[in-house]
Design a protein that fits this description.
The structure is a homodimer.
Chain A: E1 2-6, H1 11-27, E2 32-35, H2 40-53, E3 58-61, H3 65-71, E4 74-85, H4 86-92, E5 98-103, H5 110-115, E6 118-121, H6 129-140, E7 154-156, E8 165-167
Parallel strand pairs in A: 1-2, 1-5, 2-3, 4-5, 4-6
Antiparallel strand pairs in A: 7-8
């Protein structure tokens, strides 16, 4: 089980970026996202993607992050530009254990740096939690996303020009 | 020279995601971003990151995309979930040539699919142009971002807990 914990989501300001975080979590191999702020709209959007494109990715919003963290039976990492280098960090993690990946929005309280077993940086430059999560999952899963079949009602077939879409029925 | 062409940017709706696209372009090895819509604020934000964290990444906004594309002396790729698989696409590209990477916002007009030498998919699931750009640059540059020194006034030193920041002077 790989879960993402998105903290500090502000409904108006972050709706697009948090949607990207959730879709990246799903596409690159996480099983679930917890979003601390209650946000039914984002939950519906992600569930709509899942029902069309497949997989059983789960979304929970309005959760108590301390409860999730305290009861977590597995490793906890926090993605931050200040953390340990990605490749080194991944070598430290036991992929046989469950993993909770904390992804912040703006300023992240010290608490999250402390509760994480590892603070992990995807480069030490400012960029994006969306990119950081994608690269982290890519390295952690050894690019398993490239081979995953979501078995959805809609399937996209790679093609050089235009769009090739297979549809299993009413979507 | 690697440049990113961000199309369809809507100032209010996309400001955060386009900022992430630009920061990812810089952090993962592009030299420049063109943003079709005029947006002085985003330009200032990115330039402020460059002046603090280093490098000579360039930002141009309010450009004529057709002019850029017509005069481009090099390869052109367009990132889309409908395109050719990432690894296969990267094998097709001559890294000795300049590269223009087109990154869309919402619906992308057919024109961009047509002018691209390659349409490239980073997975065939819906996720994020921010993640797609990061993964594309990671593979295309063979993860050169992990070794790049931006030589900025601010330098972050990887560390397991907390923050270690080196500052060359007034920032």
């Amino acid at each position: 089980m790989i879960a993402v914990l998105r903290i500090g989501h502000r409904i108006d300001r972050d709706k697009r970026v948090t949607t990207h975080v959730a879709l990246v979590a799903r596409a690159f191999g996480a099983d679930k996202i917890f979003i601390t702020t209650k946000d039914e709209k984002i939950k519906k959007n992600i569930q709509s993607v899942c029902s069309r494109f497949g997989g059983d990715f789960q979304v929970e919003t309005g959760i108590d992050h301390k409860k999730i963290i305290k009861s977590w039976q597995g490793s906890i990492v926090h993605l931050t530009m200040y953390g340990m280098e990605l490749d080194e960090a991944v070598d430290h993690l036991d992929t046989g254990r469950d993993l909770l990946i904390i992804v912040g929005a703006e300023k992240v309280p010290r608490y999250f740096y402390e509760v994480a077993n590892l603070n992990v940086s995807v480069g030490n430059q400012p960029h994006s939690e969306v990119a950081a999560l994608a690269l982290f999952l890519d390295r952690y899963t050894k690019a398993a996303w490239q081979r995953k079949d979501f078995n959805g009602n809609i399937q996209i077939v790679p093609c050089v020009k235009g769009k090739t879409v297979l549809s299993k029925g009413k979507t």
